[in-house]
Amino acid sequence: MQSVEVEQLEFRHRGGDFRLGPLDFHLAAGSRTALVGPSGCGKSTLLRLLAGLEKATTGTVSIGGRVVSEGGTERVSPADRRIGFVFQDGALWPHLDAIGHLRFVQRGLSDADALALLQRVGLADRARHRPAALSGGEAQRLSLARALAHDPEILLLDEPLGAVDVHLRDELALLVADLARDRALTLVVVTHDRDEALAMADDLLVLRQGALVERGSAADLLSTPGTGFTASFLSRAVCLPLAPEGGRAATPFGAIDVPAGADANSHVLAVLPGDLEIVSSGESAAEAEVRHLRSDGFGRRLAAVSVHGQLVPVLCGPDVAIGDRLALRFRIPPRVLPHG
User: Fold this and answer.
1) For the whole model, what pTM was predicted?
2) What confidence tens digit (pLDDT) does each residue in 29-42 have?
């Protein structure tokens, strides 16, 4: 296993408007990290910079304490970085069967070793099949086996579950996590899906428009996000604007305190499912109409209520119906967060 360190890493498209970075972060050897964020935020570009498939404009990438790229200069070739890469579209070779894929990246691989690896990813009976004869899930398993064939120390995956049927994604995510743990790999996976990230990784790097918004353990970022963007993206929070009111901020739930030195105009009130409770009317309660009802997948009933034109989730009982007007207040201290 190897650590990964990025310092002042920046990438710009020639003649384009896209800019990634500057970024600074360290991934410990053996860690499992997901790069998350909306499409176009730079996740795949960052992954390709780590692998040496793109050249940075400035900054350094170090693997295991050794600088492998500095600015636009590659000090260590992609082939010598001990990295396995799973591409978003698989990038399989149509003329090679499954064993042929493994032998192409690892010359001299024996039949026994190739079959053992295919068996580990659930493809033992597809050894002589070409990509056209494989399902989407099988093709992605072959991509994973190919990435592991040369015994890498770091595994990079770019949207590995995108082409896989929904009912197979949990199974493949578990396989990725198990392989990373069994082989003591440093894992970096790109995804825009929160649930996929949580299934494969312990730590998260949240990207937005080429910038690193925040990073931390998945548990911490889910329970105590540091920005409104992270709360919205990871926890499906609804972010309500704040209006300055003296030294406080006005909200539909009454005036609340803002962090010392914070500007109400640059902060939001983030409301997560479970933050609100239904109460009798009062000065600290907001009146809201129930617009929708649904289950959250854990047996809890959620009402989507309209607060200042936005739908806010609140846990409710079976007696709540669409069209009801409810009085709501926070059951925890309100989350006032920077936009992010």
Assistant:
1) 0.87
2) 999 999 999 888 99
